[in-house]
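User: My notes are a mess, but here's the protein and zinc ion's SMILES. Can you give me a structure?
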Amino acid sequence: MEIDYQSNQQTGGFSPISFTCPHCGHKGIFHQTVNHVLSKDGKFRFGAVVCPGQECKSVSFIITNYEDKVIQVFPNVLIDFDKSNIPIRIIEVFEEALKAHSVGCFVASAIMIRKTLEVIAEDKNSKGKNLQERIADLGSKIMIPKELISAMDELRLFGNDAAHVEAKVFENIGKEEVEISIEFTKEILKAVYQYEDLLSKLRGLKKKEN
Ligand SMILES: [Zn+2]
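Assistant: No problem, the inputs look usable. Here's the predicted complex:
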């Protein structure tokens, strides 16, 4: 993209823009902080914005198009997930999958999603000589819908395809496939680490004599 340096006095500034802050994860209305730069063809604007969150106030760099639609944000916005009750090692591996996805490295993301399953199985002491057996063992050990165990098996195959030169099972490993895989992994994490916690909280709300 060729850049033509002009100040916003000449080109009109950003309109306030709504997007999710990559630093704190909150959605807000962002205003530009410094003069932006317009691409030579006039189709894109580059600029810095500051998060309106009182606790955050972090600076992000954005590219918008002529309709003020955000095209790119730096740092990249990661898909959010609930980390409560999830072991730190598993959070780290899954976050790496999300980081890879946020920069368009979908094959790398698929491999890290498979690794997320491996660390879940390891954390729950699942037995078996390969991941397929360990997933089946996990299903017999913990309270988890059988659909999610099937999903784990699909994600295992997806990660296998990503790790090898020739994909055998899946047609393509792209944005859509990875985003569906991420959604399923979030559900699996919920089922493995959060249902029980939520249930005990719910039970804690009951009257003592019950
Ligand atoms: Zn923020």
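The longest strand covers residues 44-50.
User: Great, I'll file this with my notes.
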